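Memo to structure team: turn this sequence into structure tokens by end of day. - J.P.
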Amino acid sequence: MTEQRIKISLLTIDEGDDTIQFQIELTNGVNSTSIDFYGYAEEFQDFANELCSFPKSIDTEIKYELGEQGQKWAYYILLRVFCYESNGQTAIQIKIDNNGIEPHKSYSEFYILTVPASINMLGQKLKKWNPKIDNVIEWTAE
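Reply from structure team:
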């Protein structure tokens, strides 16, 4: 199977308000996308905590969502984790929109297919990650 991966990098830190410019790169081996966005060092902690205990039931759905689609926001990022089979097979829906106007519009939507144990490992990595110390975090789906 082709490598499916999520990589998040710290690009810059605004020392004035501690805002971090991140870049997220995502691929399912066929499709890939990346976007720069702004957040804080603890940006992924709530998402990480939920991923660590995924799934609580077959209907569990976890989301990391930033921004909105439409002109009010500079971008939209959605990572939605859910089970798509009763045996626990899991997918991460990736939806990235730069909310640009033609011809600068960029929109991607695809899925990373994996298993709950791999999602739990992603949660553990994100939970321990301090972007101010380690500038990059990378996870490869099993």
